[in-house]
Write a structure and sequence with these properties.
The protein is α/β, with parallel strands linked by helices. The protein contains 11 helices and 17 strands. It is 29% helix and 24% strand. The strands form 2 sheets. Strands 1, 11, 12, 13, 14, 15, 16 and 17 form an 8-stranded mixed beta sheet that branches. Helix 5 packs across helix 6 and helix 8 packs parallel to helix 9 (244-254). The protein is elongated, with a radius of gyration of 22 Å.
Length: 386
């Protein structure tokens, strides 16, 4: 089964382009609201790094989610899209002074702090403005995740977060500072996680840390567990909306949340991944010695995940129902790694056919580059192409 696309509208547009199915996006957001809404103290933020297309951001903001940002540029994009500053959180292992000042000027909800030097800088910059910054400490829980090594973030050797052994010392230091207010803890163990057992392991670790803190009479009001929920790249048509029910229930069942605490989530890929497709046009069909190549006008500059992570994306010929043949689907970029898929079964490909590379709504358009002096792809919403 293929996806449904407005082929006549797409034919008239310059490719490559990103196509966002707003019905899928709104169905996903509705499911998040329903499932998270079962628990009165659950708060969901959207991880802007997954996709910052302004029109996509507006739909997400209209759904009521907050914004999780990892740069000053993302804070600016979120504010411009209408996200309330009081629902913006700022994470990242290397926050520049101007980015911290930006967050202070907007009076954002929280800085997720990843080191003592960062905490000291935030305190100094807040003092210069006569403000008090709300901070949570990102603790590295040393919990592994069943995902690609490049997107695992919760192990002891990763660059992110503060070591568990340093947690109490850092909290004590923050409490001595006049221009920061310690409000809670932040965690994130990785991305594209489909095994709920990984989240159970995180819950167990947080429970241990909370008990340890309370033994020292330290209470926290804010717990942020990051995001990480994956999507079904193999079957985007069969499962366009991730299993948010199981995801939120896992935390409800296993995390010993106190009555006075709020639990914050930072979902990115799970929100936008399935609504987006990279649409490309076939430039040439090339017969090699032992295989044939479908050469597209889209390349790793438009969607880098296959080259960077060897990531799988379902590929469909959306303008042909001819008998299936097998192709290596490649791009025009002058790099051997510019390959979307090898030995891909497609309806027989001809020059000019439109190819959809599915599940590209997250880390697609946002990671596009201009290598080889290529133009950035444009993004279009299905609402615009009616």
């Amino acid at each position: 089964m293929k996806g449904v696309f407005p082929i006549d509208k797409l034919e008239a547009l310059r490719t490559p382009l990103y196509y966002y199915d707003t019905r899928v996006l709104r169905d996903t957001l509705a499911c998040i609201r329903t499932e998270a809404g079962r628990y009165e103290n659950f708060v969901v933020h959207y991880a802007v790094k997954a996709n910052a297309n302004p029109k996509v951001l507006t739909i997400i903001r209209e759904s009521g989610l907050g914004a999780d940002c990892v740069s000053g540029g993302e804070i600016q994009a979120a504010i411009k899209a209408g996200f309330p500053a009081g629902r913006v959180v700022f994470a990242g292992v290397g926050k520049a002074d101007w980015e911290i000042n930006l967050g202070l000027d907007y009076d954002i909800a929280c800085f997720n702090v990843e080191s003592i030097p960062e905490l000291e800088v935030i305190n100094q910059l807040a003092a210069a403005k006569g403000k008090v910054a709300r901070v949570a400490f990102r603790i590295n829980p040393d919990v592994g995740a069943h995902t690609h090594a490049n997107i695992t973030t919760g192990l002891a050797e990763n660059k992110f977060g503060i070591a568990m052994d340093d947690m109490e010392r850092v909290i004590a230091l923050a409490r001595q500072m006049e221009h920061v207010r310690f409000i809670g803890l932040h965690f994130h163990i990785g991305s594209q996680i489909l095994d709920m057992g990984d989240f159970v392991a995180l819950c167990n670790r947080i429970n241990e840390l909370q008990d340890k803190l309370e033994a020292h009479r330290i209470r926290i009001e804010y717990v942020n567990v990051g995001g990480g929920l994956g999507i079904d790249y193999q079957h985007p048509n069969r499962q366009p909306v991730p299993d948010f029910k199981a995801y939120f229930k896992t935390y409800a069942d296993h995390l010993k949340l106190r009555s006075y605490q709020t639990l914050h989530f930072e979902l990115g890929r799970a929100v936008v991944g399935q609504c987006g497709s990279l649409i490309a046009r076939v430039l040439y069909v090339k017969q090699g010695t032992k295989k044939q190549f479908a050469i597209l006008d889209a390349g790793m500059t438009d969607l880098i995940r296959p080259a960077l992570y060897q990531a799988y994306h379902k590929i469909e010929n959306i303008t042909s129902d001819a008998p299936v043949q097998t192709y290596d689907v490649v791009g025009p970029v002058c790099e051997s790694s510019d390959v979307f898929g090898k030995a891909v079964d497609l309806n027989a490909v001809s020059r000019g056919d439109l190819i959809a590379i599915r599940s590209a709504g997250a880390y697609g358009e946002i990671m596009a580059s201009q290598y080889n002096c290529r133009e950035l792809p444009q993004g279009y919403l299905s609402d615009e192409l009616v």
